[in-house]
Amino acid sequence: MLVRRVLLAILLTGLAATSHCRAADQTTPPNIVLIFVDDLGYSDVGCFGAKDIRTPNIDRLAAEGTRFTSFYVSQPVCTASRASLMTGCYANRVGLSGALNHTSKVGIHADEVLLPELLRQRGYATAIFGKWHLGHRPEFSPLKHGFQEFLGIPYSNDNGPLHPVVKTIPSLPWIDGEKTAELDPDQSQFTQRLTEHAIRFLERHRDQPFFLYVPHIMPHVPIFASQKFKGRSGRGLYGDVVEELDWSVGAIIGALKRLNLEDNTLVIFTSDNGPFLSYGEHAGTASPFREGKLTTFEGGVRTPCVMWFPEKIPAGRTCDEPVASIDLLPTLAKLVGAPLPKQPIDGLDVWPILSGQPNARTPHESLLFFSGDELQAIRSGDWKLHFAHDYLTVAGPPGRAGKPANFEKMQPKSIEESGIRGIASRHGYEVRRIEQSLFNLKDDPGEAHNVAKQNPDVVRRLEALAEKAREELGDSIANRRGRGIRPVGRVD
Ligand code: MG
């Protein structure tokens, strides 16, 4: 009898402790986990249409959360996309474009207020495990911009001896904090290592609000999977790499559940830009969209996005309302009660959309698509207007075995050669031109049928919106410098 009474007392104490935890959770600011993979195509995960790559963990996240089918990054390339994610600004506003490399002397400016800095003000523990890409010089370190821990690489994983074309690039550093811990780390271990660190971070910070940013290095070329995942998918090594990333998502969610953190954690999964199509079987797919990475067609800027936040973000829902990566900073700031940066930002709070409020609409009259400083396209409602511009398309048959298209005919070029022709020469693209074209994304998501002539009023409306945007953000096509452009960080 006594034993039973003692057992009952222990049980009740346990229950009280559990309910105390739950009650405490409701007043604790939510944890944020942002998983940002690199160059994953729109249709490379099961819940976005992949048939030959198994992604049960991302699919489960979508089943228990919301799938965003019109999620946009601001620019179709690594550095610019990350600059927007971290600042809530169009990348050209903060002076960053393209993809920085080991010779770059620029990076994120000290005066910019990044998402982790906002969250630090609210007592968050912050970490980045993966690829930073906002400047590799000491003053641009993530530890100087709001992150307390950093493990990973400063720029892309092809920026080293494994670049398929340029053979003069020095070793790729693996950074721990602000120190180089290794040179040319084993890339087949990247996904495993970053995941292990992410889970240890969760375990260490389970009693404190945290922001865990996991910008996975894969599936950016050169692609690698660990031994355990090689040969498993129906789409060769690329599929294996994505299946390993899916494992990583499952491991992180599993840790959140094991640590009883799932009720108060928002998880966001998306990609920095579309697939690097020139690499053929080593690149993803963006079906049903046109083109991929490096272009402002939908294949370059629309990425698969899933958000999961039990009880807060509806389960099993698909949301086609446009949401942009620039919106995450202001939305998360509002969610956790952090003040917005004092300088202007471009993103807006989209929590009503994320949380599934009926009839919630994007607060943006238009979304802008810059490539570098060129305003190449604008979307408003279902309409997308491309201004006349040059773009990159794969030159001939796509590459094989990790080499880009046209590899046999390529002359090795320096990585410093910038601009659209420099990129084309290094990655097997050719330059084409699109004249001003209007597409209706609802009827024509593949941007194949120019309906400008039939819709002159729509063209005029979008042109007027673009003109207003140029005043603030500039446009090198129109030879305009915007009044809102801020300086990039620069070292001598
Ligand atoms: Mg990328």
Q: End-to-end span in angstroms?
A: 79 Å
Number of domains: 2
Low-confidence stretches: 6-26
Hetero groups: magnesium ion
Spell out the CATH superfamily of the largest domain: Alkaline Phosphatase, subunit A
Give the overall silhouette. globular
Residues in β-strands, percent: 15-25%
Strand order of the largest sheet: 8-7-6-5-9-1-10-11-2-12
Mean pLDDT equals 94
What is the C-alpha radius of gyration, as a whole number of Å?
Answer: 22 Å
Helical coverage, percent range: 25-40%
CATH class of the largest domain: Alpha Beta
CATH level 3 topology of the largest domain: Alkaline Phosphatase, subunit A
What descriptive keywords fit this protein?
single chain, 492 residues, alpha/beta, Alkaline Phosphatase, subunit A, Arylsulfatase, C-terminal domain, 2 domains, 10-stranded mixed sheet, 4-stranded antiparallel sheet, 27% helix, 18% strand, globular, binds magnesium ion
